[in-house]
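Lecture notes, unit on binding sites. The following record was shown on slide 14. It pairs a sequence with 9MR.
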Amino acid sequence: MLCAAVPNADELARVLAKSYYYQRASQSLDPQYAGQWSRPAGHPDTLVAFHPSSGRNEGFLSSPGGWYDAGDYNKYVVNAGISVASLLMAYEAAPELFADRSLNIPESGNGQNDLLDEVKYELDWLKTMQDTDGGVYVKITTKNFCGMVMPEDDKLQRWVVGKTTTSALDFCATMAMASRVYGSYDAAYAADCLSRAERAWRWSVENPAIRYSNPPDILTGEYGDGQMSDEFFWAAVELAVATGGEEYKAYVREHFPQYANLREPSWPFVAPLGIMTLAFAEDVCGLQAEAAESVIAFARRSVAQAEQSPEGMPDINFNWGSNSGVANTGALILCAYRLTGDKAFLKVAEAVSNYLLGDNVTGYCFITGIEGLGEKTPVNIHHRPSAADGIAAPVPGFLVGGPNGAHNDAHEGVVYPDPRPAASYVDITESYASNEVAINWNAPAVLFYALYAQP
Ligand code: G3I
Ligand code: 9MR
């Protein structure tokens, strides 16, 4: 069942932002906000067992709330960081799009911006992941993925696992950013975010190379990343802007040249988030002009690629979650448009939007629940509630992962009828490698359409 015809960019930004409400853990979704997708609360997460990898051998952590990561019900700090950052950038780009009552969530009517209310649901959870020493646990997870059941029917024991440099630094950057953005929302809350960010930074400096990999009894998502320098850079940028501290500013100035040649951000490569902050936030590091030039140069390269492509599209890397790369690329191009007013950038952004809405070789509009340009819409997304709720229509407002040339789920029997990378998308529940949804894939789409609505 489809909703309206192609909505405007502002409506798309809100539909995509509303998906986070549907991802809320530990809370029931009531019909007045969730319509036919209302459901009981799942995963209270008040008694999460310490896994030995956490450094504790007994006891429980209370870690309620937050958003489910994706089609699964686990909650991962690394992926939360980039997701929150993109959403806060969307807020900063176009706050009025998400004004109070714009998203129809339980907080609507409290006088505060709805997107900030929604992101706070994640930040409140993130705060529970910080240990007393300033370090930050990697994830709340079951030992293996549960079946395709509703949240309230997954009764598997939840575990809190590990503490790593990237989870601490992504947490640090996110909290520092939140301290800046939430100052006028709730000053005490913002101050708490900042002190947590600084504690996580100090922990990371003392523990600069702790990499996560799953212990043998944990089989869920890893978000493992052995390259921590980009996380250090992003965290230093956010702390520099939030505090003006000399240590952070010096760090940023020293490492900026390494990241000036921009590519789009992704969960393992977050330096571009730091460059975006340098380009748009208060210029405490004296690097604003250079950062803006990085963004503009990226957009110029995208235009050159688009001119070489029959579809007028910038290059796409058809890896797992390729649509998030497309959305992030589009967002950076629109950032460059903001900085320059160059209409060539807007033209490529339009091609990016058309691609996501169905003007691509699969013919699918890649966002659930809307009628895009394409003749098809995803129905069987790899999303446990959508698979288990008995409702034909998937939960709306999700960007699917999209074409995946590596076919990372073929070994589980998923068949890609058209194996060309750009066509490697199948709308079946089993295809987690092309048809899952995820908080870090929706977030750049929210940012892209927020920028598109108010370029
Ligand atoms: O880092 C290498 C890079 O060096 C290489 O050039 C490139 C070539 O393909 O691969 C890169 O590694 C990829 C990695 O993501 C980083 O981008 C892997 O091939 C790829 O398999 C891996 O996919 C990730 C997947 O989990 C498996 O770990 C996705 O990015 C990530 O979005 C996805 O996340 C899952 C969570 O684990 C669990 N929850 C659902 C979520 C979405 O599917
Ligand atoms: O549902 C899981 C999804 O969230 C992950 O992205 C994916 C890759 O880690 O794994 C999915 O779970 C599958 C598991 O890996 C293998 N057996 C089938 C599970 C459900 O399709």
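Take-home: The first strand starts at residue 48 and ends at 50.
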